[in-house]
């Protein structure tokens, strides 16, 4: 079973009309164009301008529930790096999820909405003293330590018993893009199991009187589409827990297996097998625990992309069509993923219907880079012209959070849609915002 199967069936018929699996539940296409959660794309563009990130609240909530249903005994910590804003953190808190933050900035947003500190973990291969102090001041439940320097610094700053997890690199390849492969040795995250670095980190934490070692963490990568890597990582991690018991006489109770569950960016791409993941990881953990004679640890997972990516759509206005390029009013400042990972997206005419034949075009942005591409070689009607509205689905994760001011372009707003209503969550950046930081 897949995430989509866990969701109610209603969305399938609507998605079938769009002939794609990449739109939020409740998205439809009619004579007046695209309609998301009962709100038309034309209305959104008129009211909020373009480019605009549209976020379907029910899709986010449904995905939170799908995780909780598939893994009721597991702590599901939303990875805030994928999209942090006050409303989204409120939604995931209301849906009973925990939160993974990786900076004082993300924590500040969590704090501003009163996200319970008992359900927050802090990550990061580089945590500055400010990050650590912010985490300690808010009394976050767990800090996932990532270097010996950090263990020493945290030990000096913290008061007993600050709970920590040690981030372990299990030597497992998630078979994803190199830039987001984090489970193998020779990259900047965590302590490798091989060569004894992880064992050394465990000893270093145990030597700090202010720290309490609660368990272990690993994260094998992002946009990981198969379950086998998670199973193998789980086996290696529990085996290591057995070695820690043998060496230090302590039984660790917590195992965090990270996030990384893939989503389909293009119609027809496989959806992450959440039910299979739940079953196979459970078996891997409990079998290995029984083999080494440990109680089954309490599991945490940290999905980000799989919670918010499918809830997001970006709307752009076409500014010009020339030389086989359709150029829009946004670009790499609101979608870095094409330039970073060669990511592929589909594009849909959103403001009207067209019966014109399709032709292959490349949708490009407004920035001063030839690599500023939104979608390469995609079919669009031949009559697409300046002023048309285009929609790009699957933009809820790592779009707003990776957005920049390149060329002093202002970052787009985030608008939530639900039950025929729209609500501005994050306003568009203004030139005044840009000038406010520039002290001359
Ligand atoms: C430690 C950690 N947890 C969770 C995530 C979330 O990943 P994703 O959004 O792919 O689920 C990341 C990002 O890859 C991460 O680095
Ligand atoms: N930014 C990446 C994912 C990084 C995951 C965070 N560790 C993406 O858009 O796919």
Automatic annotation (TrEMBL):
The terms under GO molecular function for this entry are: diaminopimelate decarboxylase activity; pyridoxal phosphate binding
Report the top EC class in one word: lyase
Pathway per the UniProt entry:
Amino-acid biosynthesis; L-lysine biosynthesis via DAP pathway; L-lysine from DL-2,6-diaminopimelate: step 1/1
Cite the Orn/DAP/Arg decarboxylase 2 N-terminal domain residue spans from the record: 58-309
Please give the SUPFAM superfamilies that the UniProt record associates with this protein: Alanine racemase C-terminal domain-like, PLP-binding barrel
- According to the UniProt entry, which residues carry N6-(pyridoxal phosphate)lysine? 81
Q: Which reaction does it catalyse?
A: meso-2,6-diaminopimelate + H(+) = L-lysine + CO2
Q: Keywords in UniProt for this one?
A: Amino-acid biosynthesis, Decarboxylase, Lyase, Lysine biosynthesis, Pyridoxal phosphate
CDD domains associated with the record: PLPDE_III_DapDC (cd06828)
Q: Which residues bind substrate?
A: 305, 337, 341, 369, 398
Sequence positions that bind pyridoxal 5'-phosphate: 260, 302-305, 398
Active site residues of this protein: 368 (proton donor)
Q: Which cofactor does it need?
A: pyridoxal 5'-phosphate
Per the UniProt entry, what are the Gene Ontology biological process annotations, in alphabetical order? lysine biosynthetic process via diaminopimelate
Q: What is its EC number?
A: 4.1.1.20
Report the protein's function. Specifically catalyzes the decarboxylation of meso-diaminopimelate (meso-DAP) to L-lysine.
Q: Which HAMAP family match?
A: LysA (MF_02120)
According to its UniProt record, which protein family does this protein belong to? Belongs to the Orn/Lys/Arg decarboxylase class-II family. LysA subfamily.
Complex and partners = Homodimer.
Q: What is this protein called?
A: Diaminopimelate decarboxylase
Native organism is: Actinocrispum wychmicini
